[in-house]
Amino acid sequence: MPPSPSRLFSEIATAEPPAETRVVMRRAVVLGGSIAGLMAARVLSDHADEVLVIERDPSDVDDGPRPGVPQGSQVHALLPSGQIQLERWFPGIVDEALAAGAPPPPTDQGAAKIFVNGVLGLPPEPSGTGPMLITTRPFLEALVRRRTLAIDNIRMVYGRADGLVFADRRVTGARYVPDGGTEPIVEPADLVVDAMGRSSRLSDWLADNGWPRPPMQRMPIKLNYATALYKQDTAVSDTWVVVYHTMAGKGRSARIGGINSVEGGRWIMLVAGYDEDRPSRDVADFTARCRQHYPHMFGDIAERGEMLGGVVTYHQADSRRRDFHKLDRMPAGLVAAGDAIASFNPVYGQGMTSAMLHASCLSAYLRSDPKPHEQAARAYFDQVRVIVDAAWQISTSADIELPHVNGPYPPGYKVTKWFGDLVFRTSLADPVLNARLGRVTTMLDHPATLSRPGTLLRALRLGLFRRRTAATPAHTL
């Protein structure tokens, strides 16, 4: 009997490095040098004589936002599960990040504040992953890139991926046009990894060569958000981390906000809305939103803090997933990772963590005695499906409640929603359920763990026979 999704998820998300690895191919090519591509390259370095990463952004882009990551200036979160995988593949990288300027977390557990529907909830339980690593996306990506390219058998070139080379029911290489050039170059490979993000052209390349496209699911979310950086100043606020989320209800719009303390003695602050609720680049509009719709620390920082640069906006139309595991035919010598497989509502912070878990799926696949250049990587995509299903369930179960979203509704939606709402409501005041739900939302555990009898019975008992503990309204803090 195959392992349950929750057990397989736990095996993939382990903190233990592989006990043994071996080379199973001569050459691997990774298309895309963002987090997903870098993590894939790190794993491949244990199994290939040579790993080549083809990255489209020029080599002079280092610690700043890259053109290929349009959301790079926005708030990013590395969930505890992602931090475990990051440390698993790059031992000591968290300490390295702290030494390079990532802010050390306060000793006070209550320094991270989470508001739900205007109410300050219980502080998050310690995840056991060590110091929480909070940085900007460019800072973290630059650190991972330096560690990756320090590995002897990994090399990066710059240019635009232009297609795949097919022969005998397999992918035998990739084409790219070098930065500054006009003619494509063919790079032979035993395995090609698509890490080109949500705008990946892999589906087109497959169809153009007689292979089926992976089915795509979309959930329209129409997310709009704006972000600004501020110089930290204790005279303005002692804020470290704040997460704010209101769900749409009577007289209440769905809104998201966040404040992170990041490297360089800065705060990065985000405000977001859906559909027609669109934060603009106007500083006055940004400041007014912070004061009117969010807890006091947002308004304090926006009104009294020193803004560094301007307001940056971003829009994401949908969450999407490409279900490679459903293909009845696929070529050997090809896998995908990161947003090229699935990208979610970014307010839940699942993107980088999912990419790191995909890398661990790739490691498990390559340690299972595969023949990647001879057989389609079905075992890999079956494992990735478990990660994608978990993240998709977390994000879409919340987004499907937005007034402007009308499905797709999963099987058993009404029952799942009833139990999910019950667990969520009772977790706001119960430390045990709060910790269990927190492990799921931070991708330490699979959502199926919340349906275990002990959790459901506790939620039922609290929901039916106890009054929820009163909490302090957000705007009085």
UniProtKB/TrEMBL annotation:
InterPro entries for this protein: FAD/NAD-bd_sf
Domain of life: Bacteria
PANTHER family listed in its UniProt record: THIAMINE THIAZOLE SYNTHASE
Protein name (record): 2-polyprenyl-6-methoxyphenol hydroxylase
Native organism taxonomy: Bacteria, Bacillati, Actinomycetota, Actinomycetes, Micromonosporales
